[in-house]
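Exam revision sheet. Question 4 asks you to relate a sequence to its structure. Input first:
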Amino acid sequence: MINQLINRNIEHILAVFIGILLSIYAFSPISNLGFDYIIYGILLFFTLSFFAFHGVALFQVISNYKVITHVYSFEYTYLCQFIFLITGLIICYYFFLFLIKDLMERENSLFAFFIISYLGIFTLYTIRCSFRYYLILYALMFIYLALKSTGQIRTFIPLFTALGISILITNYSLFCVFNRSSNFVKPVHIRIGSNNQIENSAHFLPNTPLIEFLRTHKISKMYFLSDRYFIEQPILFYNLNRSWEQIPGSSATIGYDYSGNFNGGYICEENDSSTNSLKKDRERP
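Answer key, structure tokens:
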């Protein structure tokens, strides 16, 4: 516990020191060759360390399709995935083009220094991948792109074309998601990051089909096949606000169905009295 606290404090101190150092350099009009090498060495180390652990996951966020699949269980065709990958590559190309230009010329380069500093400091705190970790960086990147490309639409036609195509496909996907039946959902597992971390889109499933089943059958007790926390917590919250009539002793087995059963991605099976007795016996110490 003490070691973890010490390590965390060291990370904070190091992050603050590096941030101050890079800020002073970004504002300083004086250039010193030796100091320049140190600063650009730090920036290079920050960039390489970030992309070693987070580069693939960040690109998946920028290319967008895995984020939609993760949140909405909406699977894309291989053609759409390919288009998203191409648009993501174009966006990344222009982002790094602007970034390198600002860092080398040191004119209006504070934003560029801030982004690189964020990459390195971010890596100090975690090497794990999760799409939610990159929300701030995603926003910073696109604000930076917007600022750098303002008033130069003709010069950056490929960038705006890529953004336009990505926006069109994304919005069409969301249109399909919000207009499909709540029962017509098939959860999937997706791999993110360079370490192929597994994420489960079932954790974002709408709860309506499940709640309706519990309400219709007046279920009072539930048994979970897997992922109990993600299934049970929304039900408990809903039950506190809009509880349903429950028959004492009634129970159901609940889990996720990855085969696509037209039941909202859930397995919902009411148990008979013999099943309930058997499960109670198994639960006894």
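Marking note for examiners. Strands lie at 189-192, 197-200, 221-224, 251-256, 266-270.
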